[in-house]
Amino acid sequence: MFNEEGKLLLFLGGPDSNFENINLPTNVAIDYDNIKYFQQYAVPRFKLEYLIVVASQFGNNGINVFGFGKMADMKYFSE
CA-based angle 2:5:24, to the nearest 5? Predict the structure, then answer.
């Protein structure tokens, strides 16, 4: 995944043959609407901002969900 300037933000997949990894993702979506269903699985101080949903051709899970956000009370470089 790249930002508008072409900078790499997130790498998906890998060269190995471990099918539990994300290999050959078929679709990637950003979800802002279903955070409430996943916030309970994050550590208590972590505030989800959006979800990255990845459909994959291989692996035990056809769909993988990753949370993006920030830890409470933590200062970030971009702020």
Answer: 20
Structural domains counted in the chain: 1
Numbers of helices and strands, H then E, in the chain = 1, 3
Q: Specify the DSSP element, H or E, that contains 17.
A: none
What are the structure tokens assigned to 35, written together?
């955070």
Dihedral sign, Cα of residue 41, residue 42, residue 48, residue 54? negative
pLDDT tens per residue across span 21-42: 666 778 889 999 999 999 999 9
Domain, as residue range, for 30: 1-79
Question: pTM for the full model?
Answer: 0.64
Please name which of 59, 70, 65 lies closest in space to residue 37, comparing C-alpha atoms. Answer: 65
